[in-house]
Amino acid sequence: MTQPKNFGFGEDEKMLRDTARKFLEDNLSTDRLHALVADNPDPGRKPDCKWDQDLWNNIVELGWTTIVVPESEGGIGMSLVALASVVEETGRAGLPAPFIATANSSLVLRECDTPAARSLLSAVAEGQAVTLAATPRSGSWLPDDTDATYANGKLSGSAWFVQDARKVDTLIVKAKAADGIMLISVPAAESGVEITPDAIIDLTRDQAHIEFRDVDVSDHQILAQAGTGNAVLERAEPGILTLVAADMVGAGEWLLQTTVEYAKVRHQFDRPLGFFQAVKHPLVDLMIMIDHARSLVYNAACAVDSEPENAAKFARMAKARASDVAAYSSNRAIQFHGGIGFTWECYVHLYSKRQKHNQMLYGDASYQRARLADLLMGPTGG
Known about the structure:
Layout: H1 11-27, H2 30-37, H3 53-62, H4 80-93, H5 99-112, H6 115-125, E1 130-133, E2 147-151, E3 154-163, E4 170-177, E5 180-187, E6 193-197, E7 207-216, E8 222-224, H7 229-265, E9 267-268, E10 271-272, H8 277-306, H9 311-336, H10 348-360, H11 365-377
Parallel strand pairs: 1-4
Antiparallel strand pairs: 2-3, 3-7, 4-5, 5-8, 6-7, 9-10
């Protein structure tokens, strides 16, 4: 298979992206975002979970959570390219909602292709928020690495680094059974499920680790049978990496545009800050980096849609380059805002923290390049 022209980004995808951008500009200004999630600068504060549930309900009504849900399950069945374009806009807005967590979960559910998974996809189409609880305490994304176990209809153990755990209705848990790895649907409010918030740097999201204490599991909750869970996650991983990369591209664009505007109005030595080459040249470099990362994101998304044999390779390229953008955009934005750049009142910190979180999520740039090398040249054992 070959990729379509313009990565398959046509008029429908453009209209979806533009509508998303307009909605977020109208309903989530940066002033409102900062007032919502950054009202308490106390470093000793407890982990917060601040988000606008009415805004989330509006997003659900707009159908964003159904973009990649098949029509047969009540979704609109569009491409990952379409979804990536909306995720880029949510990154630009710093959206504090379980949108990416639910989107990533939808990609996993599509790959399960079981009655239970299709039922949960239908619930997503109706507005249910879902997240992945698939990472052990080690943080490893290795196939058989999980701290949760399933036996005799009971789920025990734990999951770590669970994104937006306090905002979702359902968890997709990776567990080890006698016959291998399986995936299980667990209501977040189920008896025996204990969610403990993590203190993380990103104010626009929450993260938690979760304990499962003999949680009852019925057959209709089994999304992927024992022995098939690893393959499901492996097939879904390129899409997951691509969406996180799209979020970094969007946040990088906000940091670039905000810094450019500041460089126009801030004067030093009787000149606009942007007059000086030490400022303008790095901003041009950042613009080029963002365009490069954006191209890799849509290339990866299109590969998931049209040439899955290349999806893993292209997705790791996108995640690695977007992580570079995240680091550089944050660094230059803080530096070029000068004395106010590192302050709580300067909105740059919201995006810099979101970028740092995304850099590490599912593996940073170095990790992705190491895995890419394994794909291209074979495992080195390093």
